[in-house]
Amino acid sequence: MLSRPDHSFPNRENIAAPAGLFDRIIAAIHHEEQLRKTRRIFLAFLFLLVFSIVLLPFTFYILVTQWQDSGVAYFISAALQSWYAAPGIWQDSVLSVLESLPIVGMSLFLLNLASLLFVVRLFLYRRGLLIQYALKL
């Protein structure tokens, strides 16, 4: 084995690197890291957007079905039709309406709507980066 690498290539010349080569390499690495982060954000945005849009009709259907089954609409219509009697029994009416609210349907729908609004806000916040990345695809 050779102890010094200079002896293995006797005709080798020391060539100096061009000026600014190291800076260009660092800039290229930084650019690739930014593209990787942007790709990750773009894919997460796309996944959440599609997921929220696909689930929105289902959660709305669950909310409407539970609303109809709960009878809350009947309580409200009865209170509006007999407006003169509602002030006397409002405490019992409000309590019975609160007990029969479709909490699961409302929670699912509001959670889905909140995630959709979050994704749209994320897109508007990072619009420049995401549009540039989408155009490069």
Can you walk through the features of this model?
This protein is mainly α. Helices cover 75% and strands 0% of the residues. The chain contains 5 helices and no strands.
Q: What would the keywords be for this entry?
A:
single chain, 0% strand, 137 residues, mainly alpha
Outline the secondary-structure elements:
Layout: H1 21-70, H2 72-81, H3 90-99, H4 103-125, H5 127-136
Number of helices: 5
What can be said about the biggest beta sheet? none
What is the tally of beta strands?
0
Please identify the structural class as seen in this structure.
Answer: mainly alpha
> What's the rounded overall pLDDT mean?
80
In short:
By secondary structure, the protein is mainly α.
